[in-house]
Amino acid sequence: MKQLFTILIIALSGIGCSSHLPVPAFHPYYLDYIKTQAALQSPLAQYTLGQLHLFGRTDQAVHSDASSFLQNQEEGLMLIEKAATGGHIPAQRLMGILYGFSEQFSHELKNPLHQQLSLPQDLSKATQWLFQAAASNDPDAIYWSARLAYLEDTVEIDTQKALAQLESKSDNGHTLSQTFLAHIYHDGIWANADLERSFHWLQQAALSGDAASQNSLAIYYMRGLGVKTDQKEGVRWFKQAAENGLARAQFNLATCYEQGIGTDIHLAEALILFQLSAAKHNIGAINRLATLYMKGIHVPQDPSEAAIWFQAGADMGDPQAQSHLAYLYSAGLGVNKDPQMAAKLYRDAALQGHLPAVHNLGVAYLKGFGVKESKTTALKLFTTSAQNGYPHSQFLLGKLLMEGHS
Question: pTM for this structure?
């Protein structure tokens, strides 16, 4: 089964056009001008106005009242499709991305204004537009076409031709193609696995300043993937990516500073980086920061602060955060004691297969803590977690069975 592409890079610079209407910023006259040109069937104006309707922005400028454009997704799509039909390559590319990667695209923009953008995936339309743009030798379209075919088995593509095109664009410094080739040679699906070649392309993308590639390159150094293990070099690249604002790199660098991996221990810097990363919703940083406050590691013990961070993680649907927050509610640590809330959170985490939560939910049913007592339900839960190797459940299950419960 194919792995999802972990080096995910979606930015407006990757979908935009290289030429724009000759007005640098939004002004009432500029907007009127765009509308007039769009009505005159200018593909560039249609594309620009379509972006405003979809995103409240174009490749270069943000409208002062961006939210007013988000109410007309249908109009935006119609305008961009007109531009695409008129041969505008960036419009063709954007249509393909929206139909092929709409959910990921909206998520990666990380802007509440874009959450209304929602298109059902349509691989037929996605391939139609992406392949058309790629036929014009557009580097971004070549990348998105290949990526769509890589992730979707039903999309047919000449893999050898796609690889050759990606190699060519990578040689010319196209970062998206470089990161994708690194992934391909790591997984060995379209080509034989070649970690040294994977490392090469990842390094090229990292040297161009791509933060996600810098973070991945650091992992290659840490694990000795395609290169001799060098933790100090790994820390150096984590730092580069962290300084470029990448949340997961900030978390990784914080972990190195906390544990002294490839560097001396720097607890103060680690805490700052955990906080920066957590503020950007990195779940690893959120859970680590919460755990530090819960246990009083490196910081004064503060269950209330721990509860705040675990709540943030629970709101993101993370089972570990839900399970820890449930414990705080069950014990009344940092929050008012609430057995019902504890049971609910344990259930939410258990439904995601989190074994400690499955066990603790079983304990809740066994004792009638926040739920109606039910040894039958408790036994079922203990059996599930015990069969998956959770030792506490194995012990309690054996005890209950010896007592004659079944």
Answer: 0.84
